[in-house]
From TrEMBL, chain A:
It comes from the Bacteria. This is Uncharacterized protein.
UniProtKB/TrEMBL annotation, chain B:
CDD domains: VOC. Signal peptide: none annotated. Pfam families: Glyoxalase. This is VOC family protein. It comes from Rhodococcus pseudokoreensis. Residues 10-154 form the VOC domain. InterPro entries: Glyas_Bleomycin-R_OHBP_Dase, Glyas_Fos-R_dOase_dom, GlyoxalaseI/FosfomycinResist, VOC_core.
Amino acid sequence: MTTLFVLDVPENTAVAEVAGRDPAVTVDHVGPYFRIVSDSHIVIDRRATGCRHAVWYSSVAGLAQSRITQWDKDAMRIEPR
Amino acid sequence: MSELQHTVKGVDHVAYPTFDPAGTVKFYRDVLGFPVVHSICAAGWGPEKHPDFIHFFFDIGNDDRLAFFYYFGLEPFDGGPQGDSYSRFAEDVPIFFIRSRHLAIHVDSEDDLMEYRRRLDGSAWPVEMQIQHETIESIYTHDPNGYMIEITRALRPVTPQEDLDANLTIDALVDVVTGPDPSMDALLTRKAELITERAAAWQQQQESKEVATR
């Protein structure tokens, strides 16, 4: 299970929203964090989020049994470990 | 999280050495408009070869002060082509490392930030960068001594969940750097464990606090 945590603050809401557009992805909350989960990989398009680079590159709060395989100005890709 | 009482009241003063007191006064007093609020003429009080020094202070708001030491007759030290009056670095020291040491001064609004931008841009020390970070916006330049100075404003107030997140990050960092192989990957994995352990309980605590204050 690929699991990504993102803190629920105004700058990050688009990250969770864009991730959740994939029907294979579910988004819920653990405390003040978005928990973004998929059976396979999670891909988030940076431009679709509208995030500035400083927000984008500090948006990941935690990874459970998962690893980042791409995190550049175009996209973030998280895969099961 | 620490349970120690937090009774400090901000920065009394931060002090740097200068070899260019005239430039320093011009930059801080005449360009930025930071008042001179204190100075000490230490005649014969300094070290053997440089007994006479001046210690002078600028008000940087909030009763906090930025101070400089000027030692008569003291020449700048070697050490490399990069850096500032305090530390000279060899050519191969990366600039991100050198710039990680800087002083950031707070302003309350965009108008105030832009006013300091105008003052700097009209001087010999124009703004080198203006950047919106996660939740702050900053301008940067270097003073006549080569010290990097930042003026910054908050884009919004810091929320309680960001304080929680900061504490989880630091607890994860301490765990990871005391382990065998520190990395961002290890930190984010450890942090996910801490989020799972603590975040839901924190949220419940916040909600009961809110109910109690209603």
